[in-house]
Structure formats: structure tokens, C-alpha cells
Amino acid sequence: MFNVRLFATAFLLTVASFVFLASQSFAAPYYERISGVNRIETSVEISRAGWETADNVILARADNPADALSSASLSGAADAPILLTSPNSISDVVLDEIDRLGASTVYILGGKGAISPVIEEELISYGFDVIRLGGSTRFDTAALINKEAGGAYGTKAIVVNGYAVADALSASSNSAINQIPIYLSKTGSLPVNLPSTIKEVTIYGGTGVVSTEVETLLKKQGKTVTRIAGNDRYLTNIAAADPSLAENVIIVRGTSTSRTSEQYPDAVAGAGLSHKLGANIILSHPTSVKPDVQEYFMNNRYFGYFILGGEGAVTSETVMELTFHPDSEVLETFDHNIIASAMDPNKPVLYSLSDDDNSIRSYNLTTGEEKSIQLKASPEQLYIENNKIYVSIVHGLHDDYNFGVQSGEIAIIDAGQFKLEKTFEIDLDPFDLVVDKNGFIYVSGGSAQWTEIKSYSSLTGAEVSVNRIRQQSYLEMNPNQTKVYAINTDLSPRDISEYYISNGVITGYKDSPYHGEYDLGDFSNFSDIKASPDGKYLFNSYGHVFKGNLEYAAELEVPYNDVAFDLGQNRFYSGIGGYVFRHNYSDFLIDKYYLANGEILYMYQKDGQIYVLSIVNVGLLEKFAIEKIDMTKGTDLESEEQSFQATDALVDTISKSPLK
Predict the structure, then answer these.
(1) Residue 29 and residue 458: Cα distance in Å, rounded?
(2) I need a surface site. Which of 97, 315, 614, 621 has the fewest CB within 10 A?
(3) How many helices and strands, by DSSP H and E, does the chain display?
(4) C-alpha gyration radius of the chain
(5) Could you give the CA distance from residue 585 to residue 570 in angstroms, rounded to a whole number?
(6) Is residue 277 classed as helix, strand or coil in its secondary structure?
(7) How far apart are CA 179 and CA 491, in angstroms?
(8) What is d(CA 384, CA 412) in angstroms, rounded to the nearest whole number?
(9) Which CA distances in Å does 90 have to 34, 68, 134, 319, 653?
């Protein structure tokens, strides 16, 4: 039942980041701007983004889009990127791209006045099969393109005004993805006859661009005519968007780059990319937010946003304001670095460790009150139990070869008064720690490869027992407090084990029965473990779930950076990138997802409410932030199929598939 994709959590976190800066925060979905220094090089970058190889390429004139308006169906049918060229010479960067693709056929759009025979001859000299599709007018050229693409022999066609480029762009996704030919019209007449095989025609644009006379003519020919139109180009574009294309979207400039002519070079070259991504093309004003476009993005969420052209095409600020509508509220941002955190189980207080000033800090989610206690040395991890906060403190860097004398400290803070009670030294380089209800502290060593896990009395500081463990192993207390789980970080494959405990004594050890069968991380991508509150399952952040006895149980649909449980509602929540996924605890399937403001690092459940500790971008600064998810928002996934589709979309987009 479980549709699993195995990707390293750290990798997913990195590539899910917003790839260009905006003034407000990190965007949680995947954003990519595809651009070059000019329109020709942008077309090359679009080709590189969408195609590793291609047998065919389409070559269109860069300074006049007329002949390229109908190329979308050919791009889809021939699986060909659309490259741009100057009329009289072809640049080396375009030739290099054709060579990189390994193409054998080049389609030249337009007559010899559009693209010079010199270019055609040069391509032939390089051994390419060159096919020129050029008529005496743009209308004739469109008909030739449609014939070559094969759409002229189908039953459906699109009609747009040959001089209204924006409407042609709105039709390009449908044309490229479904190989439906685009025929060009004048406002009051249809210069070319549509093939007799065409039975269904969709007109893009209002009667001001394609008149009722043209519509009537088509109907008299026995064709069924549908019109897609809005009060302006943006509304027409939105009306044309296919709601089934819910994974990716392409955002392009919706106004001409020239004051004297209709030029949309980046958008024209992007028609083929819509076929590769299965994406709608949405028009945007380059510098201002159109309310109707913003409303469209508020109602239609995508996992991948691809912006064609540089800042002069559509600014990053405009893209952010249009598309980024999180389901969370940032309660506070923090100026200090946070290396570990935990939520108080009894009150709405978040504790965090900072290595900026070797401190432990508290933040009250309700009042906003912040407090700080400075520690003697650098803190490493913290754990809350018995209304106390236990902190491991290191004396130096962890060292694989420190086989000699080791030392560290354990600090104990009264959580009620947020006051340091005491600190005691231990003869171990501490890494992680957990504590049981009897006040016994279990600490894993951070140095010496095969090192030790030791237990200490929190009352006396005395060592109680010891066992072997791999250095820098993360620990997790089983909820029944009869054993401590561990996952190592310095071996490949990663391994899970459990240590049996009784009254502070480590009484035994059991290794996982699996060694490499399930990917739990590698040297560069750490992963941790977290037990469900009922002790039934042990979750690994790569998406694997084990039973409490270490037997394999299931796989989640996506990996996560952290997980939080609300078993009273039979739910748990996982976070990755900027997404919070709500799972059904019975079958682990995702039934809803939320969008956070920043990149999720840690998650907490408090009284049915989900909070996340994230990294957001405030101005040009990255800051840690605590966010509260609005549980009334989010996107519901009403079926198992929708759950699979949504999570597949996320992973496919983040891994840049079908992009290279």
C-alpha cells in the first residue's frame, strides 16, 4: 500500500529551499528560476532544464514570435525543446546545446526572411537533418507546423489571434501536452481552412480578438466551438489552466518585452517545458501583483514553481507575493543559533540550546516571554523528564581517535523555575542523552569510535553502569522505559539497536536484525529515530517504521526532518522542507498537508496544536523561528489516490524529475 521514495532528508531539505531571495521568508515549495543573460541563452537554459537528450530541436526567430506561436504541439509531439536564434546567425551557445542534446533533426520555423538560409546551410554542414516549416505568412506557417506535428490529422484544434501572443501562450500548455494544433486567426477572419478532420475547436480569447464571425464560420463547417475568454489576458489565461495539472506550474511574463511589438521570447521557448513538466503556463505582470492571478495561486497549490527569465521578466518579489500563502503564523524569530530544542510536556514552553553563548533558553508560546541561562561550556543535547531539563555539555570537539581520558558535564535545570540546579562532571565525551522517571541519565559517547553508553544518577552524579556503543549515536527512550534505542551515525549502513534498562542499570543489548536492507542514512546525511508515545513504533527520518521490537513495520510516503504525534486524534505529523503532512496513525497515509513559512527542522504537538521550529529569511538574514500551524487551513487529500499523487508530486519535484 505504501508508495515510497527514498531520498536523503538533508538533500530534500536543501533542494526544497527557495532558490532566489525574497524580502519575507523562505518559500516552502520548490522554486526554480530558469534564465540566461539574454533571450537566446534563456531558451538554452530551458532546454537544459527539461531535456537530457533530444532527437529533435525547434529553432525559432528570437526577435519575432510570430512563427513560434504554433510550435507548442510540435514541441510536444517531437519531444523537442524550442531554441531561439538571431535571424542571420546562430550563436555558439545554441549550437553547443544542440550538440549536447545529441539531436539529429532541426526544425526551422519561418521562411528565409525569418531565419536566413545561411543558418540552414550551416546546420546542414554539421550533418543535421534540417526541415524548414515556413509559409508565406504566419498563418500558413502555423498550418505547416500542425501538419508536421500530426495534429492536422486529429479531431481537435485551437484557434487564437495570430497577433495576440498572450492568448497563444495560454493555449500552449494544452497544445504541447495533448498535441492539439494551434491555428492562427485574424480578428474577423480565418486566413486558412482547418482540415476537415477537425471536429472540435477551442477559441482562446474574447470576441475582440477572435470575432463571432470566425466562431460562426467554424460552426457552419459543422465544428463544435468552445470559447475560453476572460475580461483580460490574465483571466483568459486562468480560465485556460488545466486543474488536473496540479504538480508543477510555469510562471512567465504576461506583457511584451517591447513597447512597439508583441514579444514574449521566454514564454514562447517555455511551451515545450510545459510538456516535460506537465505544467500550466501562468501569466504574470513583471513587477506588480494582479489580484486575479494571486487568487488563482491561493486556490491552486503547486509543489514546483518554475519562473522563466530573469528579474526583468518577473521579479522574485512578485512571484513570492503571488504564490506563497502559508498555513502558519510566525510567533517569533530568534537572533541566536539553535542546535537542539524540546517542548515542555506540561506547559507551552519551548527550550533550546545555543552555541553562540553556550546557553539554554526558554520561550513561552503564549506570553512570548524569553529567558536564558548561560552554561559553563558548549551544550550538545537536551532532554526533559521529571519537570527537569537535562543538558549534555562537551569540553571539546568529538574525536574519532580520542581513546584516552574523556570528560564532559551534565547540567540539570529546574523547569518550573527555569533555574540551574547543578552541574556534575562525567568521564565521557557526551553526545546524546535520555532520562527515565527515576532520574537515571543515559549518555552516549561522542568520541573513540567504539565507545560507551553510560548511566548516571542525577542525585549523586555517580556512574551506575556501562555498555558498548558506536560514537555519536542518537538515543531515544522507549515510552515504557524498559529500554533505550540507539542509531549510529558513523557506520554505513546505519544500524539501530536497543539497550535494556532496569533501575538505572543497562542490563542487556540487542542489535537490529536488518543491516542495509533499509536505507537509514549515510555519512553525510544523518537520520534519527523517534518512538511513538504508545511505544508501538519506532520511526526513522528516512521514512522507515519499525515495531517496538525492531522488526520492520512499514514505510512512509515521504521522509521527514521531524515527526510529532497526536494519538488522541489517531494522527501524527511529519515535516520536510516547508511541508507539514498529516498522517492517519492506523495506516500511515497522508490525508492533509500544510505549508509553513520556513524550512522545518523540529516539530512539536501541544494540546492538539502543531508548532514547528524552522529557518526563515527575514530580509537578507536567515533566522530560526517558531511557527504555529493553522489547523483549519491546509489542503485535504480526500482519497488514498490523492495521497499518493500529492506525495509523489512532492518527491518528483524536489528531485527535479523529469528535469535532469
Answers:
(1) 45
(2) 621
(3) 14, 41
(4) 30
(5) 5
(6) helix
(7) 51
(8) 10
(9) 21, 17, 18, 32, 33
Q: Is 170 helix (H, G, I), strand (E, B) or coil?
A: helix
Rounded to 10°, the helix 233-240/165-178 angle is 10
Q: Within a 13 Å sphere around the CA of 300, how many CA atoms are in the beta-carbon half?
A: 23
Domains, the chain, in order of start with CATH, read 30-323 (no CATH), 375-555 (2.130.10.10)
What's the pLDDT band for 637 if we cut at 50, 70, 90? confident
Alpha-carbon torsion angle 134, 137, 141, 142, nearest 10 = 170
Using CA atoms, how far apart are residues 182 and 152, in angstroms rounded to an integer?
Answer: 9
The mean pLDDT of 375-403, rounded to a whole number, is 96
User: Backbone dihedral region of 386: left (phi > 0), alpha (psi from -120 to 50 degrees) or beta?
Assistant: left
Q: Is 274 helix (H, G, I), strand (E, B) or coil?
A: helix
Query: What DSSP character marks residue 585?
Result: T
Grid cell of 232 as nine digits? 483580460
State the residue for C-alpha cell 490529422. Answer: 153
Tell me, rounded to whole angstroms, the distance of Cα 385 from its chain centroid.
Answer: 36
Question: What amino acid is encoded at 228 in this protein?
Answer: I
C-alpha span between 151 and 198 (Å, rounded): 9
Cβ-based neighbour number of residue 229 at 10 Å: 19
pLDDT of residue 648 exceeding 80: no
d(CA 211, CA 206): 7
Minimum mean pLDDT range among 385-394, 404-413, 514-523, 632-641: 632-641
Q: For residue range 460-514, what is the model confidence (pLDDT) as tens digits? A: 999 999 999 999 999 999 999 999 999 999 988 889 999 999 999 999 999 999 9
Rounded (10°) CA dihedral 159, 256, 309, 52: 30
Q: Are strands 544-547 and 537-540 parallel, antiparallel or unpaired?
A: antiparallel
DSSP letters spanning 590-649: EEEEEE-SSEEEEEEEETTEEEEEEEEEETTEEEEEEEEE-TT-SEE--SHHHHHHHHHH
Can you say whether residue 109 is alpha, beta or left, with left for phi > 0 and alpha for psi between -120 and 50 degrees? beta
**CA–CA gap between residue 440 and residue 74 (Å, rounded):** 71
* Rounded-to-integer distance, Cα 513 and Cα 518, Å: 11
* Phi, psi torsion values for 316, nearest 5 degrees: -60, -40
H or E stretch covering 98? helix 92-101
Predicted model pTM: 0.79
**Buried residues in 515-552 as b, exposed as e (16+ CB within 10 A):** eeebbbbeeebbbbbbbbeebebbbbbbbbbbebebee
